[in-house]
Design brief:
Blueprint: H1 2-19, H2 46-62, H3 82-112, H4 123-134, H5 143-168, H6 176-216, H7 233-244, H8 253-277, H9 288-305, H10 307-317, H11 331-341, H12 351-371, H13 373-378
Helix pairs in contact: 3-4, 3-5, 3-6, 3-12, 5-6, 6-8, 8-9, 8-10, 9-12
Amino acid sequence: MRSGNGKREQRQRAGGGLLCAGCSHTSGAPTPLEQPVVEPARPQTPGQASAGARDRSAQIKAHRIPAEQHRPTAAGPSQSTLPAKLINGGVAGLIGVTCVFPIDLAKTRLQNQQNGSRLYTSMSDCLIKTIRSEGYFGMYRGAAVNLTLVTPEKAIKLAANDFFRHHLSKDGKLTLVKEMLAGCGAGTCQVIVTTPMEMLKIQLQDAGRIAAQRKLMPQTVAPGTVEPKSPTAMQISRELFREKGIAGLYKGLGATLLRDVPFSIIYFPLFANLNNLGKRGAEGPAPFYVSFLSGCAAGSTAAVAVNPVDVIKTRLQSLNRGSTEDTYSGVTDCIRKILRNEGPAAFLKGAYCRALVIAPLFGIAQVVYFLGVGEYILSFLPKKDN
């Protein structure tokens, strides 16, 4: 028995020396209770091996963030950076305005003409007469102002809505009231750019109507009136700034707020809920065509809903008028005179034009935002080393 015990002790001492060979400290051989017991590997059957692989795969997936969480969507808070949001909004605005600007010009001219000086009977009539008198590019009067300022305007609108939705959401969910608050914040932020942009655009768009009215309807022109030259955006800006300061560019600010805030309150929640109907599964994003159709439907609905305020805003911001046309001192004065002289139907002037403008404009915007064009562009920039 002693010889057997002696051999076991020698093996234990030898094992202890191997365990402590790589240690920096000196220690004696571990006792049998301290020594780790290493069981020999048992051969696995093919079924056990595949089950183990599945378990390891499940553990890896549990720690991986789904790709959808990184995809920017217009329907909710996104993980995209602020520069990407600004690029998305800018690109969408440029594409949209280029496509629908002639319809917007027709909308402005239809809203500005009053009963005593009706030159156009419909959108198509307005566009045909514009091409005849001003040429094809006459339909793009004021487009340069819009293309210049629509980038910051759309960028602010979409990025602000995304910002407010992100900070108002709780566990990634938003109530309808909070969705409306986010839209209200977006609409309030955008008027910083929208008001001067609309002010300049309306003067340029309506200049052709005034000129055509002088030629085709001379009875509306006061005797001895000199026909003014077509102004440029810079000339209008300098004149307004010289006469009224920065406030001159913000004429109609109250009416713009009354239009854009309700528009955003209607548009963004309606878009988000329509877009959610087309999602692939509970967590998956909606296809791009669903985002496009949702943007078109929500945009046209909101546009028609706020069209009466848009008519008031257009009338207030127009500086040049025919001699027989009314002038307005404010929102309430404008409402009173329109009701008295033209009737309630005048508040729907240009409504279908506005719906045709806004629907594709916001449909395109949401698709660009959804596809992440800004993220794609930024991916070509060199990344900074940490």
